[in-house]
Task: inverse folding
């Protein structure tokens, strides 16, 4: 009889009860109807608290806080100007700028809603002013915002890792290439639409007579050379991996610094002063994802510690380098972050309680038997599960959907030989795209609020971009190397070169 909690849960969602309370109320209602005396209700609330009391889960509020600080600190405008300087001259230039800005902003916030709100308020009016229709501007903003939760840091991947017991670092690394692939696909679609829909031509947009403080200029000067030296160091590491050399790593990095300076100076002579200033003003904010991923990769800190470092870095940059925030702004940022975090943590805690009833109901086993009865071919089952996730994403936000379906579907496909990290990316990307999918996609409503355009109008305009994202989902599904290569090379899949790449990404059932 416990299996009936699923219809009750769906009924409560349909009548408008918030997901958090539906997750708790559906098993309680069924238990009360059955007269169960096993103190399951007390156990549910005990699990609610235990579900929030987790060190790895602390990464979520810290990353949300870092994103709020960066957004309030005026980082959005700097990223937009940086994107315009690079891509504004292309046909459909501001649409390309919108997509590139989303890719860059994804490394700061990890939230599709924050992306739509922050970038949309800046770019939608600018696109409309430059000859784009408002519905097209809102559609491309909503479509590109789904990159936010795919490229690390990602809130939904932290939730998935916590619920399913996977490595946060592995999921972060696995999301890099799929996120970039979504962005590139959207840019290709914009280029295909440029001539057919006569999208406005543009010039390279670089604001004239910009200023930068001496401190920010000095910080950018140093960071640019460190980044170039780091790239040179990585290339030398690849060379030493092919041809082993007994050379100290710090020595290589030290030798790379003067070369990096020479490269920076040579590049400086080829570009205008205004273009250099645009790039310099974007350097400090763009270090956030580099610090997060770099620190995790070299083992300096865990993902949770990386989130705290990201907050500290965002505060230093916003208060002392850019001087774009003050104490009053910080109070508002902390308040907004606390409210957002409390809602997410309550949702995760409720989901842990929900999982208790799921395990008692034998729902995973029943659903597993049903899915396996449809076909014995894993490729066919992956297709069917993508269709299911896409439909679920139309009505349910990515976080709750992962919390509810992850524990049910994950073990099924792992038993079929799909790597758990690979399935995590399939599920995360699919449900993230659902945020921009009619009729209930959350970012559609945010884009409507920002642009003043009707949701129905945006929904029709976004269809070509959704088609691109669906193609990317199936590429990720059937070509595991797209998402698995980076975590494999970084050693986060739990198997080394002696096992082999193909054997590592496709474990034997």
Result:
């Amino acid at each position: 009889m416990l299996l009936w909690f699923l219809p009750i849960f769906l009924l409560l969602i349909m009548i408008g009860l918030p997901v958090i309370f539906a997750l708790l109320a559906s098993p309680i209602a069924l238990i009360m109807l059955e007269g169960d005396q096993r103190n399951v209700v007390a156990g549910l609330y005990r699990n609610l608290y235990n579900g929030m009391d987790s060190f790895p889960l602390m990464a979520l509020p810290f990353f949300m806080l870092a994103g709020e600080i960066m957004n309030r600190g005026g980082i959005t405008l700097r990223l937009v100007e940086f994107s315009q300087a690079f891509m504004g001259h292309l046909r459909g230039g501001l649409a390309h700028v919108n997509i590139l800005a989303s890719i860059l902003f994804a490394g700061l916030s990890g939230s599709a809603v924050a992306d739509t709100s922050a970038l949309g308020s800046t770019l939608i009016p600018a696109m409309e002013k430059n000859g784009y229709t408002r519905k097209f501007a809102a559609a491309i903003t909503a479509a590109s915002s789904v990159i936010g939760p795919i490229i690390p840091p990602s809130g939904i991947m932290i939730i998935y890792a916590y619920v399913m017991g996977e490595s946060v670092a592995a999921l972060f690394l696995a999301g890099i290439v799929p996120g970039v692939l979504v962005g590139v696909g959207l840019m290709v679609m914009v280029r295909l639409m440029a001539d057919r829909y006569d999208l406005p031509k543009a010039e390279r947009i670089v604001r004239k007579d910009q200023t930068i403080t001496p401190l920010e200029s000095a910080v950018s000067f140093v960071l640019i050379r460190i980044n170039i030296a780091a790239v040179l160091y990585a290339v030398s590491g690849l060379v030493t991996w092919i041809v082993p050399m007994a050379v100290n790593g710090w020595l290589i990095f030290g030798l790379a610094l003067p070369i990096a300076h020479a490269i920076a100076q040579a590049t400086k002579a080829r570009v205008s002063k205004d273009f250099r200033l645009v790039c310099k003003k974007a350097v400090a904010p763009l270090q956030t994802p580099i610090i997060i991923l770099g620190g995790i990769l070299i083992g300096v800190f865990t993902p949770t510690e990386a989130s705290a470092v990201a907050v500290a870095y965002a505060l230093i940059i916003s208060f002392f380098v850019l001087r774009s925030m003050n104490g009053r702004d910080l109070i508002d940022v902390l308040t907004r972050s606390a409210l957002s975090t409390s809602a997410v943590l309550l949702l995760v805690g409720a989901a842990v309680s929900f999982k208790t009833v799921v395990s008692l109901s034998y729902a995973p086993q029943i659903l597993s038997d049903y899915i396996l009865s449809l076909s014995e071919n894993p490729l066919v089952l992956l297709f069917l599960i993508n269709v299911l996730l896409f439909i679920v994403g139309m009505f349910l936000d990515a976080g709750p959907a992962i919390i509810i379906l992850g524990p049910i579907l994950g073990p099924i496909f792992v038993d079929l030989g799909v790597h758990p990290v690979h399935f995590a990316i399939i599920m995360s990307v699919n449900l993230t795209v659902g945020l921009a999918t009619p009729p209930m996609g959350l970012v559609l409503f945010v884009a409507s609020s920002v642009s003043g355009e009707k949701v129905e109008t945006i929904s029709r305009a976004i269809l070509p971009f959704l088609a691109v994202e669906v193609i990317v989902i199936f590429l990720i599904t059937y070509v595991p190397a797209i998402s698995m290569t980076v975590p494999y090379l970084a050693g986060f899949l739990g198997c080394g070169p002696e096992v082999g790449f193909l054997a590592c990404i496709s474990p034997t059932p």
Q: What stands out?
A: The first helix runs from residue 5 to 14. Residues 239-246 have pLDDT under 50 and may be disordered. Residues 57-206+272-340+362-508 form one domain.
